[in-house]
Amino acid sequence: MSFLDELRSSRETPTTAYHLFLLNHPKGTGAVHAFFEGNDDSSFYLNFLNHYTEDRYQLFIYKCGNKKSVYETYEKIYAHGFPEFILLFFVDKDLYNFLDIKTPVSDNIFVTDYYSIENYLVNDYSLQRIWFDILHLPNQDGQFEIVRAKFIAELRKFYEIFQPIMCWIIYTMRCNLKPNFNNINVTKLLIFDDQLELNILPDNILAELEKCCGINTPENFENEVGEIKREIEKHDPKMYVRGKFELWFLVKFVEKLIPIIRNCYQNEGEKIKVVTVITEENAI
Q1: Dist. CA 281–CA 284, nearest whole Å
Q2: Nearest to 198 by CA among 236, 166, 152
Q3: Are residues 158 and 249 in contact, defined by beta-carbon separation less than 8 angstroms?
Q4: Is the pLDDT of residue 140 over 80?
Q5: What is the pTM of this model?
Q6: Mutual orientation of helices 17-24 and 67-80 as an angle, nearest 10°?
Q7: SS3 letters for the chain?
Q8: What's the 3-state SS for 88-156?
């Protein structure tokens, strides 16, 4: 059998997380089995897990596809009884703090404090790492402090803009309208100008949201939005702003920052070479 045939043959075996676990668990109790929603989640947690399992446990990684599948895998495994194994499950909280949704609770199920893993990455520390590791610039000079201040100010503005958007999202979910929020493209809502300041693009954001998600806002929304706003204001914005939206902010801020920095250094006779390009797809 050729190497290519061997690879093709391997795909014929069951590939659900639960079935893969059944294939792996007989290999011994000296293993850690970690279950994630998708690729980004495993990338986010992998270094941490390797640090604690290296030289002690064999680590098995399973990608379940989404949060619902992680919980379903958890219930299947424990229904059949595998208590002697180290099993870890990782899920994003999403908007469950604001919706009446019940999920299994256990010491070995880790749920993010924020909306999702992306929210943990959007901060001035990540900006500093990008400045130093990707732009290869000194982070002790005055230029970085100017950029950091702009980043913090515009992120605060971003939260202010997205607060009513997230109120609308929470309300429509409470109304069981099930809009597809994956269709919301923040690039159609916001843009950074040459001063690294956020600007709103559409005249009517609500109309744009309805168009993207394919739903009409219920008439009672205007009466309910104030209460939802007071409810979410009690929390850190990272707990209710969708992580992928916030990650957009970091990516687009850096994307707009790079040519500004290039021009600045070019005027001083220096060149900035950026080898790694950060996108919404590869940021994590």
Answers
A1: 8
A2: 152
A3: yes
A4: no
A5: 0.89
A6: 40
A7: CCHHHHHHHHCCCCCCHHHHHHHHHHHCCCEEEEEECCHHHHHHHHHHHHHHHCCCCEEEEEECCCHHHHHHHHHHHHHHCCCCCEEEEEECCCCHHHCCCCCCCCCCEEECCCCCHHHHHCCHHHHHHHHHHHCCCCCCCHHHHHHHHHHHHHHHHHHHHHHHHHHHHHHHHHCCCCCCHHHCCHHHCEEECCCCCEEECCCCHHHHHHHHHCCCCCCCHHHHHHHHHHHHCCCCHHHCCCHHHHHHHHHHHHHHHHHHHHHHHHCCCCCCCCCCCCCCCCCC
A8: EEEECCCCHHHCCCCCCCCCCEEECCCCCHHHHHCCHHHHHHHHHHHCCCCCCCHHHHHHHHHHHHHHH
Nearest to 244 by CA among 156, 155, 118: 118
pLDDT in tens, 51-97: 988 888 889 999 999 999 999 999 998 888 766 678 999 999 999 98
Residue 168 in tokens: 């609308």
Reported residue count of the chain is 284
CB 267 within 8 A of CB 281: no
